[in-house]
Amino acid sequence: MEYQHSKEWKADLHKNRVRTMRKREESMYLHANYYKPPPPASCEDSASRLIDLREDLSCREKICHWTYSVIDHFRLARQTVAISIDLFDRYMATLGNQCDADLALLTSLTTLYIAIKVNEKKKIRLSTLAELSREQFSARDIESMEAKILSALSWLVHPPTSMDFIYQLIQCMPTCNISSSLQRDIFELARYTAELAVCDPFFIEHHSSVVALASVLNVLEDEISLEKLPRKLRTQFANQITSNFTWYVDCYRDVKYCRERLRDLVWEQQNGSEPGSPPRAKRSVSPTSITGDGFKC
């Protein structure tokens, strides 16, 4: 009886955490709340150098992949990338999603610095990050930019990420009949899928909870066999989601769109940009520089 009570208490704890994170992403961390129209350009020359991050998708993608390379180089948590890019996207929204290449690079360097401070036990020296710019930006430049970003974002630097939601959602599964190794496999596969979503601007306007649920559902349907996870347990999990999280019903269409997009991303990563094309070459952006030939917005 005591064991059953403990299980129910833990289940309620995870459900409440999901609800709390969901409220945060719908209010204080809602991307649309940060958008401001771009300021008028001071002159034609400066306007010609501006990058519209909603049109020039390659700039943001390069920043994402470079950030992953830095995180992997220093052996930090990949969730830190999701936090850094969230800060980057929200700050750029306050600028109307327009900036020049130098500002984009400085902002990405600074949001990574902030994300490491709030999410990692291991700390990276500010001077070390400044060196990644090959002296284009100094430690003082990063500190000054940090103050601007924190002010613009009202110091809201702990966004709930898709990885946070994935972990909590998996804890809602009927664990009595699921091995810990299978739970771990589901988590790792869903996390991998969510990591791909970080680099795709399509998901900026979609809640992390939606991306997380779409990732988990895709893994259950595409990666986990019925032998490992029988249909009965899948149905129980689906019922848990629909009965405990009313937002799923409201977001059903968004979840569907995200599932389709995530499947495309996984296909591209594993097989190439289009069916029949060769697999993509492994990216080789060096974590020792953000201004080399491999990284220019």
From TrEMBL:
Signal peptide start and end residues: none
Coiled-coil annotated spans: none
Residue ranges of the region described as Disordered: 269-297
Residue ranges of domain Cyclin N-terminal in the record: 56-156
Alphabetized PANTHER family for the sequence: CYCLINS
UniProt-recorded name of the protein: Cyclin N-terminal domain-containing protein
Source species: Chaetoceros debilis
The organism's taxonomic lineage, starting at the top: Eukaryota, Sar, Stramenopiles, Ochrophyta, Bacillariophyta
